[in-house]
């Protein structure tokens, strides 16, 4: 049984947004978007995890994000500490910029964090119930800052409003670029080959790709060489909204993940059916770390 409600709790927009079926599309959007950062592309390309084990790599990543969003504090902190140790091994030289990269670099961690939380909210707005209320949106971005305490980036650097997110993207845009390795990663994640991804991920990635692309700005679509007609953008939205409405029940959400993303399914199932925790209250990353004696 969970020890507590984690960092956000049952009434939080984070629980609402991250457990929506639209989070799958948001996740695909974020991992594609991340490749516009050349240092992050170098880390992904050199490690080759998404190519040698796409299901395992993507499943573990989404399960981690979901754990931070909905698991109890101890579980979330333990997951973050484990991931930081894994990332510590991912270092090298980016052949595009000549700079040294590190998966734990604060700037790279900030890029991953912001693109993840923004993408999941964006797809919730486009394909799910729509915009949060102003109060919910303020709280969502405040919770995004709290979640950043588990990363190597400084929480003070994390955008805390929609306007600050726009400012962040405007600030980093001059450093974004593409390359052969970036294009390889983006296209691979949009439409994973059957041989590596097996049939379910092969099909899932292709079903989601048009919906994912439709939420991205045109300049990114053109830069990444995965643009699509605006007519397809318009046509895909009502179809995806209808599919999301069908998949809203707990069992439907789990069925979508079954056989493809087992770790993510496990985290979501524990969340949906866990009942009242030992301490029916939220905690903080600092308190959870202290309880586990994590420095």
Structure overview:
It comes from Kutzneria albida DSM 43870. InterPro entries: MPAB/Lcp_cat_dom. The two termini are 25 Å apart. The chain contains 16 helices and two strands. A two-stranded antiparallel sheet has the order 1-2. The model has no long low-confidence stretch (mean pLDDT 95). Helix 2 packs antiparallel against helix 7 (106-127), helix 2 packs across helix 11 and helix 11 (194-214) packs across helix 13. With 295 residues, the protein is an all-alpha fold. The protein has one domain (13-291). It is globular and about 50 Å long. It has helices spanning 13-18, 22-33, 38-47, 49-52, 54-70, 73-87, 106-127, 134-147, 162-172, 180-190, 194-214, 218-223, 230-246, 250-257, 262-272, 285-291, and strands at residues 91-93, 100-102. Helices cover 65% and strands 2% of the residues. 42% of the residues are buried.
Q: What can be said about this structure in brief?
A:
65% of the residues lie in helices and 2% in strands.
**Which word captures the global form?**
globular
How much helix, percentage-wise, in residues? 55-70%
What is the C-alpha radius of gyration, as a whole number of Å? 18 Å
| Number of discrete domains | 1
Tally of DSSP helical segments? 16
Question: Order of strands in the sheet with the most strands?
Answer: 1-2
The number of distinct β-strands equals: 2
Q: Tell me about the biggest sheet?
A: 2 strands, antiparallel
Residue-averaged pLDDT, rounded?
95
What is the subunit organization of this protein? single chain
- Unreliable spans are none
Give me the secondary-structure category.
mainly alpha
Order of secondary-structure elements: HHHHHHEEHHHHHHHHHH
Distance between the termini: 25 Å
Q: What is the strand content?
A: under 5%
GO molecular function, one term: oxidoreductase activity
Organism: Kutzneria albida DSM 43870
Domain ER-bound oxygenase mpaB/mpaB'/Rubber oxygenase catalytic: 15-248
Pfam family, one: MPAB_Lcp_cat
